[in-house]
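Hi F.,

I've been meaning to write this up properly since the lab meeting, where we talked about keeping a consistent format for the predictions we share between groups. The idea is simple: the sequence comes first, exactly as it goes in, then the C-alpha cells exactly as they come out, then a line or two of notes. No screenshots and no reformatting. I'm using this chain as the first example so we have something concrete to point to.
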Amino acid sequence: MLTRLRHLRRDERGMAFVYVGLGFMGFLAATTLAIDVGMFMTARSQAQNAADAGAHSGAVALAMNDFNDRSATGPAVTSAISTALANKVMGANVSVLTSDVTFPNSPSGQANRVHVEVFRTTARGNPVPTLIGSLFGVTTVDIVATATAEASPANAMTCVKPFMIPDKFIDGNGNGSFELNVDTYIDGTDPVNYTGYTAKNDVGTPLMLRAGNQNSIQPSFYYSWKMPGDIGGNFYRDNIAMCNQSVLTYDPNNPLFMTQEPGSKEGPTLQGIQDLIDQDPNTQWSSACKCVINSRFSGQSPRVFPIPLFNPVYYAEGKANGRPASFELANFLGFYADYVENNGTIHGIITNITGIIDDNGSPVTSTMFPRAIRLVQ
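Output, unedited:
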C-alpha cells in the first residue's frame, strides 16, 4: 500500500487536465472582458450620445422657444427629455426625469446652460444586464452619462443680408425718427439699460422694411450696404437670395463699420427676396410657438436670416458733423421674410436666430440677439 501511494505521488498522468481547467478559467475571464466590457463601453458611448443630444436640444429650446422658462413643463426641459429618450442604450430606454435637467450658470455667471443626466441603473430599474459576468455573480452594471450645452450670446454671424436697419431706440417725441438730444439709444455694452432689440421682448413682432434715405432714421427703414467680396453684377441680389459665407463679428472694442450702397436698391431687393421666398414657399409663422413651421428644409428655413443693426447715434452724429454716411454694427436681428411688395417693401416677423462665436472677438454681454448653441461638457 505504501509503495502504491508513493507511486501515485510521483504519477504525472492527468496533469494536462489541470492546465486545461486553469486555461479554461482564463479563457472565460478573457471572454468576459471581451464581451461584457466591450458591451459596457458601447452602452456608455450610447448613453453619452443620449445625454449630448438631450443637452443640445434643451439649449436650442432655451434659445429659440423661451429663454426664461425653466419649469418642468417648459420647452427646454421637455425638449431635453424627449430627445434624450429617443436615443436608446443597448436597445432599451434610458431614464431621464425632470429633476435630471438643470440649468447651471456659465463660468461668467450667465444662466445660459442646460445640464442633462441619463441613467441605466439599478436604482432606476433599468440596469444593463451582463452576458458572461453572471457566471461570476455580476448580473448587471450601472451606466450614467452627463452633458452640458450652452446657449451663449453670439458675437458673429454668417449668411447676413446686404441691408441693415437701426437698432431700437427710445423715441422721445414720438415722431418715429431718431433725433440727437431728443431720442435715447444705449448700446449693448450696458446690459442693464440697453434699449435695442432683444429676443425676450421682440420675438413675434411684425416688422416692415422699406428702403431708407439719408435724411431720416426710422425703425422700418433699411439701408443697403456693400458686403465683403463684391464682384459687381448681381452680387447684391445674389447675397439676398443665397448665403454670403463671410463672417461678420460684433466687437465692442473693435467696431465694424459698414459702407452704404448707392441708391435704394429697391429692384434688386424685390427680386432677391422673392427668389428667397420661392426656395421655401410653404412656410408659415406660428404664433403658438413663435417660430416658422412647414418648412421644406430640415434645418433653418432660408427665409429666416440675420439683419445687421446699426448704432443710430453714431450715424446721426456723423451726419450732423458732415461725415460721409457710415454705419457702426451694433447687433444682429433675426428676421422671417413673409412676403414682399412690388415697391420692394419687405413684410416679416422678428424671430429667434442662432449665431456663432468668434474667439478672436471681445467678450459680449447677454444683450446680443442671436445665440450660439454648443456642447461645453
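Notes:
The mean pLDDT is 86.
The longest strand covers residues 327-340.

If this format works for you, I'll send the rest the same way.

G.
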